[in-house]
Structure formats: structure tokens, C-alpha cells
Write the C-alpha cells for this entry.
Amino acid sequence: MTELNTSHGKPRAVVLFSGGLDSTTLLALALHDGYEVYALSFRYGQRHAWELKAAETIARQMGVAGRRVFEIDLRAFGGSALTDNIPVPKGRDASTMTREIPVTYVPARNTVFLALALAWAETLSASDIFIGVNALDYSGYPDCRPEFIEAFQHMADLATRAGVEGRQKLQIHTPLIHLHKSEIIRKGMDLGVDYSKTVSCYDPVPEGLACGECDACVLRLQGFAENGMRDPAPYVSRQKVEGSNQ
Amino acid sequence: MTELNTSHGKPRAVVLFSGGLDSTTLLALALHDGYEVYALSFRYGQRHAWELKAAETIARQMGVAGRRVFEIDLRAFGGSALTDNIPVPKGRDASTMTREIPVTYVPARNTVFLALALAWAETLSASDIFIGVNALDYSGYPDCRPEFIEAFQHMADLATRAGVEGRQKLQIHTPLIHLHKSEIIRKGMDLGVDYSKTVSCYDPVPEGLACGECDACVLRLQGFAENGMRDPAPYVSRQKVEGSNQ
């Protein structure tokens, strides 16, 4: 670690942070590991801005060193239910949703997000990037797989000043990649994460309540249920996982 | 080539197109090679918008199938003379300017641009991406080197639906990478490129005239001079290369 990468003795890390369950756990992990954290969120034309509101609240509460909301309108290219008017699938079973690339896949999204994290990291002289990709629950997304991250790491080694000048290379961390949702939640609980303000839903109602029926809600509710817990976030409906006993 | 990638029998290509000398030659090459061309330009917080004006005029003249100017404010991260208030170096000799990473390097710029080209290509079902990087004249930029492009290609193979589903992978083309500026110009002249409207200058005067003294101008003027030609683009000054005989 060079002096350039430290502030008060801490290494700097850019953390890709959406305000969802996974990236909030990720942020807690990076802080726990002793990094000076710079949280990077994107306004990328997603259908709703609730997760950005959540990201702002959570980042402030958890004590990041810096924060950016980067504007990048991926709707300009189209092709996803998360940015276009394609309906978000509802009521699917967790066991069937991971076999194919879902309509919620945004073309090359993680490539774009990691590229921008790399740009900010290089400017900050940060030594590390954290991204909360997961290869189990979202195995249908090509850009959540370990082989994609490895390839991006290799590319990043060659893309930057640090790589060329033989200085310390940027390290990309994916601490959640091989964890089930229930394990991610347990890790977060151990670190004292407050999940009540996190937003994972692909399609919340206008008041910001999670729908309880899209893939993201189903996986999340199931993750809490497997830990014998109740998801503290506000929902319109939790029918699929919790039945009518709520 | 699958039917998906063709329109009127032509394969589709996304061409990264700034309106400069290199990318205008690139566009001519892609059209000559029979591609249906989609030109992608960026408003990335560059100090001037003259090259975007040039890009619009040239793309219309050359007959592209589609065009996008993507807004992405890389100034949010800072760190370059091309986007910040750092002075652009002037009057440097072509032989000395390629040994180090210049202040005009924008952190991770080509990584970001290629990532966005990948996103658009995936949405368009395009089979090819063209980028006008050059490893000779701009060897100081880490993200213009062949090893960077190879690493990006490998990453792209894993990042997209096509890669995962075993369909045809996107091919990244860099036809200018090993050419000297004079060779690029000769190739463009053979293809009938009109260089009078191309803008390469890092720091044009307010009326849009090229300065004639920044690295980009010096390399370009020298490239024409080596072909025994006069650069048809408008300049304020051509002193460094052409001396006082203009």
C-alpha cells in the first residue's frame, strides 16, 4: 500500500452501492475490513428512484468518506425490463428463476458500472473496488459470473496508469459472489446492518413499498425466512413466500 | 453471420466515432467493408463541442444507418486535461510525446466507451464494434494498447447474452492500431474521406479553428506533411510543423 492510497492510514475503496440488500451488506463488509469507502450509485434510467433515496439514507448512516450518484441513461440503448416498458415478471418460484437470462437483464450493465468505478478509483488513487454480484441467485445474468469478474480484473490491470506504470493494481472484490441470499443476510446481521431501509424490489408501488412478487422480492423474502426472520422492509404483499399469515 | 445480425444482408457494427481524423477513417473503413454502421459519439464533458458538431456533419455525409450521442459526464470523476481545467500541453515535439501517459489521458475512458458500445451492440444485435485506437502515436495511453483491447475482447465474450448462449460473439476491430498517422491518412484518402471537416484538436479557439500546437494537431499536421499534403482542416496556426511558409 502506498501513501497515495491511504488517508488516515486506511486504503481507499470504491463500492458499487445501489441501496439494495446485497450492496448494503457489501458496504458494511468494506467498512468492517477497514477501507475508507467511496460509494458509487447510478441513476441509469431505472423505472423507479426509490433505491437511490435508500442509498442516500443508508450511506449517510453508515459513514462513507465520499459518495457519487452518476447519471448514465442506459435507456438510450433499451433492451431491458428494468429500464423499458417491458413487464417485470411476478410470482415466479425461486427455483426456476435462475436458469435463463431474465428480461430484467440490462445489456452490459455491470461492464458499464465497473468501467465507471474504475474511472473513479483511478482518479481517487483507490486501491480496491467492491461489487455485490452474486452467481447463485442471479446465475442467469452473464455479468454476475466469476469468470466475467476475472476477465474484467485482467482488463482493468491493463487499462489504467497504475497497471502501466507497474504500481499497485486495482483489486476487484466480490465477497458475495458465492453466497446464498440467506447467508448474505446472516453476514449483514452479524455486522449490524439495518435492512429496514434497503430497497431490492424491481417494481415498487408509487409509495415506495416493495411489491413482494418480483424475482428480487421473492429471493429476499425467502432469504429472511430461511434465517427464521421477517424482512424488516415495507411490502405491499408478501403472499408468495409468507402466505396469508402476515 | 446469423439473420439476426443482418439487415438487407449487411452485418451491423457499432463504430466509436468522435468526428476526428482517426475515427472518420475508421467509419469509412467499416462502410467500405460492407457493414451497416451505427455511429456512437459521447458528450463526456470534453472542453469543447466542436468535434461533436463535426461528427454530426460527417456521419450524415457518409451515410450511417443510425447514430447516438451518449451523455456521460466523466468530469464527475475529474483527473484529465481534456475534461478539467488542467492546461493542454502545446508545442511538444512528436518524437517526445509518446513516452509517458499524457495529462490528456482521461481515466478509464476507452474502457467506459467500449462498455457502452457493448451495451448498444447487444441491444442492436450487432456483430461487430470498431474503435480507432492507435498504439503508435498515442502509445502513452494505457487503454490504446493491443493487450488492453485483447483483454476487453475476452471480457466482452463473457459479459453478454450472446457469449453465454453460445451465439456469435461480438468482435472488436482496431484496424488503425498499428498504423502511423501518415498511413491512416493515406488509407482514408484512398477511400475518399474528406478530412476538411474532421476535428482532432484538444484545444480549439472559440470559433472552432484548430490550435495547431497541441499533441493532436502536431501529429496530424505531420501526418499530412509526410504524405506531401496540406491538412485541409482550418487552423489558427501551423507554425510547429509547417513553419512560416503558410
Summary: Strands of chain B lie at 6-7, 10-16, 36-43, 66-71, 128-130, 171-173. The longest helix of chain B spans residues 109-124. Residues 1-6 of chain B have pLDDT under 50 and may be disordered.
